[in-house]
From TrEMBL:
Transmembrane segments: none annotated. This is ABC-type lipoprotein export system ATPase subunit. It comes from Cellulomonas cellasea. Pfam families: ABC_tran. The keyword ATP-binding applies. One of its GO terms (molecular function) is ATP binding. The keyword ATP-binding applies. SUPFAM superfamilies: P-loop containing nucleoside triphosphate hydrolases. PANTHER family: ALIPHATIC SULFONATES IMPORT ATP-BINDING PROTEIN SSUB 2, TAURINE IMPORT ATP-BINDING PROTEIN-RELATED. SMART domains: AAA. InterPro entries: AAA+_ATPase (IPR003593), ABC_transporter-like_ATP-bd (IPR003439), ABC_transporter-like_CS (IPR017871), ABC_transporter_ATP-bind (IPR050166), P-loop_NTPase (IPR027417). It comes from the Bacteria. Residues 1-204 form the ABC transporter domain.
Amino acid sequence: MRGTGLSHRFGSNPELFADLDLELRPGQIVGLCGPSGSGKSTLLSIVAGWEQPTGGRVERVDVDRTCWVFQNPHGVARRTAIDHVVLPLLARRHSRAEAEERALAVMSLFGLVAVAGRPFRDLSGGEAQRLMLARAVATAPDLLLVDEPTAQLDQRTAATVNQTLANVAQENTIVVIATHDPATRAACTHVVDLSAGARSHAEARR
């Protein structure tokens, strides 16, 4: 997947970024970094195909399934945590037993097995955020977009989430994260620095 010469502005406002080139490959975990208002979420929307850039183009090759995990998790209050992970698997014609087995395996990566039977309304903010990540990971997307995944997490849990996302990237998935967390930035293989203003660049971390 590639973005070439990407630029974006809203109306007559200054450009958020300009002449930005991206090359997103399976196995990468790409951090979109910068302060609030620098265009991180907008660039996520462009990568997802939800927003058209005002300049440049995005080429999507071999990306059939995209999942987006938003910063503010939303769920069905009375449904259990495991139900939220099982549902998309059932929609892909897994049996209930297969879906639950897969759901519990992924939930264990995020430390959620103990709350699997708890209603969504009884989860903490951090648990709900991790649940949305687990639901997305369970579907094995080609492209996983994550907006501020560690914003509601303590330092130890955030480190676990960062490592899990890195492992997901190694399973032939492109992972793109919008973050201002230095630890999450450090966990990325590539960084797109939007803090410099209009003319941004992509930096390979390793």
